Amino acid sequence: MHFRGSYVALVTPMKADRSVDFDALLRLVDWHISSGTDGLVILGTTGESATITPDERRSIIKKTVSHVNGRLPIIVGTGSSCTSTALRLTREAHELGSDAAMLITPCYVKPSQQGLFEHFSTLAKGCSISQILYNVPSRSGCDLLPKTIAKLADLSNIVAVKEATGDLHRLRELLDLETGLSLLSGDDPSSVDFMLSGGHGVISVTCNVVPSLLNRISQLALSGDTSAALAMDKPLKDLHRVLFVESNPIPVKWLLQRMRYIHGALRLPLTELDSQYHADVSCVSASLGLVDNVKRGSYV
To answer: What domains can be seen in the chain, in order of their start residue?
Structure first.
């Protein structure tokens, strides 16, 4: 399975009581399908997977798979610091009809490169679903190095890497290894340069609010139209910035609420965007026309 283009790291909408808002979730799915998004990544960091219950996980996967009905790929975050738990979650996602699993490096425990190799190889051998390795040292506390990725690439169902360091030198190292893996950016601010430098796509937080634009930018970058891709991405630089003024997904859910797509609730320990950032996010989103029409979304 080859991944290419713009994939949304989808939020999990919640009601005021912090229960999962399945109606809003499926409306977001339809919006992304109509906007040309190339695939959905659910139950990742942006989807608040750490605070989703096992029953909610199953329901989110089932409802999304049924609603999408093959219209685009569904990637499910199934990572865990415990290898056996990650394997159980990966098998569950496979059994429920997901197209691929995204596996973050184990958080907090800080394994060695050998430990990372054995962790991911155990998952690949234990479940045949296509698997995407997710390297985000800023959150996990460990760095999956290119030499380890090269060894893991020998396993046929490890098909892609989400590289969120924002380091283009790292991308060049991976390209030089000629692993055949799809290389996906996990860092919105550098994603266009990533694709122009040989990467294959992006798993994007920003795509939650400008899916059509992100899809067009990725098409231009992947076709080698450097000037057009950079010109179209330039107005988004401030948007990329404000969506990370606090921990993801706090700012993006606040903006989606302003756009009337979701309620905007988060689960503790995450809390609503601090008021000191409201003006900045509002100003940037208004400059892009994201909140001009209060009827933009159908939530209220």
So the answer is: 5-223 (3.20.20.70)
